[in-house]
Amino acid sequence: MPIKIALTLVAVSIIWATSFPLIKIALESLSAGHLTLLRHVLASISFLLVMLIKKHKLLPQKKDFAIFGVLGLLGYTIYQTALNFGEINVSAGTASLIISSAPAFTTVIAYFMLKDRLRPLAWLGVLISLIGVILIVFGESSSFSINFYALLILVAALSASFYTVVQKPLFKKYSAIQVTAYSVWAGTIPMFIFSSGLIHELQFTSLSAMAAVIYLGIAPSAIAYTLFAYAVANAEVSRVTSFMYLVPVFALLFSWFMLAEVPSFVSLVGGIIAISGIVLVNKFKN
């Protein structure tokens, strides 16, 4: 992998890692639904300005409307809604550990959809990663039972995995920023189901929460997703997503620094197992 792509993915990992504790900060004053909508309205406006400045077409080809609608649902509507509602009752660091399982799911999806090859030890890595995720989901409950909110974040990880694979063929016709912009706009439209009461809630939103929302709308949602799309367009999908195991490492540090949060011991063990599985997948993929 070219060093330029590798450095880009490290930057993406750091930016995405900051989003987990900042979601918790935003949720102190905003409901999960309002946070989801507001964040992506800001991201949509950011993309509109960039697309106008770069003189890109503001709409994809008509025959691609459906696929961008699917991408919007997978990468933004479902992913962000599930993640934000999940973090209501799951620590930021633990949420990042669950999301870190996405590369394992992506590898399996790419095997079926893109015909990427997998060696037996790579399949073992997928299984190990899945075991780690199961431990995390159970570890977030005091009675060692399934945590519904942790399951929501697992849904987000699965959705993100499909998003990563489905977008790959579109880079033959569109730039990274076009693919991301069209997907964000498509994914933001269904979020208006959360618009009721937003204006009223904003009157009582703290400055720290608003600052978090603005940052989330611009950095993780706009900048990082565009950089990620650029990497996917120029490298093998499973290699790109393997860098995402850096996200929980940075996220745990940011969560400790910003929120003084420390995941449960079981969740941490599960996270280590999940990431170990992803490393195995990356090493023995083909």
Features:
mainly alpha; globular; 286 residues
In short:
The protein is mainly alpha-helical and 286 residues long. The chain is 75% helix and 0% strand. The protein has 13 helices and no strands.
Give an overview in words:
By secondary structure, the chain is mainly alpha-helical. Helices cover 75% and strands 0% of the residues. It has one domain (3-100, 148-261). It is globular. The mean pLDDT is 85.
Shape call: globular
How do the SSEs run, as a string of H and E? HHHHHHHHHHHHH
Could you name the ranges where pLDDT drops below 50 across 5 or more consecutive residues? Answer: none
**Mean pLDDT, rounded to whole units?**
85
Distance between the termini: 15 Å
The helix-and-strand class reads: mainly alpha
Oligomer: single chain
Query: Major sheet: size, sense and barrel closure?
Result: none
**Percent of residues in β-strands:** under 5%
Number of helices: 13
Fraction in helix: over 70%
Radius of gyration: 18 Å
What is the number of E strands?
0
The tally of domains stands at 1
Furnish the topology, listing elements before pairings:
Elements: H1 3-27, H2 32-53, H3 65-86, H4 92-99, H5 102-113, H6 120-139, H7 148-167, H8 176-188, H9 198-202, H10 207-234, H11 237-242, H12 246-259, H13 265-283
Helix pairs in contact: 1-4, 1-10, 1-12, 2-3, 2-8, 2-10, 3-7, 3-8, 4-12, 5-6, 5-7, 6-7, 6-13, 8-10
